[in-house]
Amino acid sequence: MSGHGDAQPMTARKSGPLSGTAAVPGDKSISHRALIFGAMAVGETKITGLLEGQDVLDTAKAMRAFGAEVTQHGSGAWSVHGVGVGGFREPADVIDCGNSGTGVRLIMGCMATTDMTATFTGDASLRKRPMGRVTDPLALFGARAYGRQGGRLPMTIVGAANPVPVRYALPVASAQVKSAVLLAGLNAPGETVVIEREPTRDHSERMLLGFGAELHVEKGAEGHIITLKGQPELRPQTVAVPRDPSSAAFPVCAALIVEGSDILVPGVSQNLTRNGLYITLVEMGAEIEFQNPREEGGEPVADLRVRFSGNMKGIEVPPERAPSMIDEYPILSVVAAFAGGKTVMRGVKELRVKESDRIDAMARGLEACGVTIEEDEDTLIVQGMGAGGVPGGATAATHLDHRIAMSFLVCGMAAQKPVSVDDASPIVTSFPIFEGLMTGLGATLTR
Ligand code: S3P
User: What residues are in contact with ligand 1 under a 6 Å CB criterion?
Assistant: First the structure.
């Protein structure tokens, strides 16, 4: 797990043109779900392209603790022998989800409607994050939660012995909360309904349909109304995990700001609930060609040809786009620093409760690199300095946050002076091959 070992400082220096092909690993969100839905199906689910990042490995371990047989057969090739909806056994020990909010929140959901007790914990970052957003709706099913003040981990969930179905309107735009409610609804009789005002990533809905659940989505004035019929028998699936658009963001953005770059990033998801960053970059004037659009692993994907773009302009990012690019604001704020004019990111207060307070982490690190920032609770504004205009020459604090670490390393590849991060070890949670992949493209990274 990240955050349990020694800090690993890393430095990025102004790099030669990036070139070549950046084959990024499997999607983190889909990888967690493939393991969890596989564990809730009856029989053997086969997975290819699974992200073998620490977050996902922690979820695999958790599924074993609940009684599923999870086996690695080769690189990215895994199988899960599931125990069926309601078939989990009570774990004999504390479930440690490491750095992963997705892991812990989804797993709480899938055990909350079975008659058992489980205790969850995580690393120092995860232990700061709010769990009330998940335990509030789980209480409506009849589950009880006992955690630290502020709804923090470690936390014990006593599952509902006689769960009732729930109708729940999400108070925050969160795919994790939506998914936790749907997973809990699987083992409740009758129909569980989740209403989301703004669409968030829809991997759980797609996968539930794939595994044979009865689910339908209605689009109305209230937003999306998702209805799930409880207590289905889920059928095992073969899941081909597509590449992660949130990981692809790092080589894509590096190529945009490192002079002379020209790279290909194959198989990047164009799922409308995930592609907000790519729309935003194009609006800023990024040279990205979307080649060979097709479907892979049930997701629309394209190969991205990305060239250095020295004339990008800052824009106002529409707040309603936030859910489709929520993990990409840190790297977008780096690109914004190399664009001309201001980039205004409003409606982003959810960033304050991610692996770190990402508004604060980006603001402090970019300021240390010589960039002017304005911020408030819900807003981040970056004053761009143009291509090659960021001074750099600083060390950013990463606060156990993989995306903060990778964002500042990308910044250092194009800044005038090197940029260091105090700890690159969290990168293994989502993008274990980041260092090799980026140096393979021509980036200069040193430990
Ligand atoms: C995720 C949902 C997002 C995202 C996280 C992964 C998921 O969180 O930030 O990295 O897999 O459902 P929220 O849904 O809480 O915004």
Answer: 29, 102, 174-176, 179, 200-201, 326-327, 350
